[in-house]
UniProtKB/TrEMBL annotation:
UniProt keywords, alphabetically: Cytoplasm, DNA-binding, Repressor, Transcription, Transcription regulation
Classification via SUPFAM superfamilies: TrpR-like (SSF48295)
Protein family according to the UniProt entry: Belongs to the TrpR family.
Cross-referenced InterPro entries: Trp_repress, Trp_repress_bac, Trp_repressor/repl_initiator, TrpR-like_sf
Keyword Transmembrane: no
NCBIfam families: TrpR (TIGR01321)
Record's subcellular location: Cytoplasm
Species per Swiss-Prot/TrEMBL record: Shewanella sairae
Coiled coil: none
Protein name (record): Trp operon repressor
Organismal lineage: Bacteria, Pseudomonadati, Pseudomonadota, Gammaproteobacteria, Alteromonadales
Broad class of the protein's primary localization: cytoplasm
Length: 91
């Protein structure tokens, strides 16, 4: 499975502009999947900011508490250096 994912990443990195990325992601992901990815990114951003509780994030962005808990647990078990690196990437 790793080889297949690497192939996807290569295709993403090959796209010359945002419009090409939009076309590729519309091909590869359903609207629901794109929404889920966007929601997960928002959850990680909000958790890393630390300004809202999990319940507030769920209400504000209409994201399930289960998704928020999974993201929170992932961050909690991550080394500080990795968390800082991710924060730099997505903020």
């Amino acid at each position: 499975m790793r080889a297949e994912w690497d192939s996807v990443l290569e295709k993403v990195l090959m796209q010359p502009d945002q419009q090409s990325l939009i076309v590729l992601f519309e091909l590869l992901l359903t609207e629901e999947e794109r929404s889920a990815v966007a929601g997960r990114l928002k959850v990680f951003q909000m958790l890393l900011q630390g300004e809202m509780s999990q319940r507030q994030i769920a209400q504000e962005f209409e994201i399930s508490i289960a998704t928020i808990t999974r993201c929170s647990n992932y961050l909690k078990h991550m080394p500080v250096e990795q968390r800082n690196s991710i924060k730099h990437l997505i903020m």
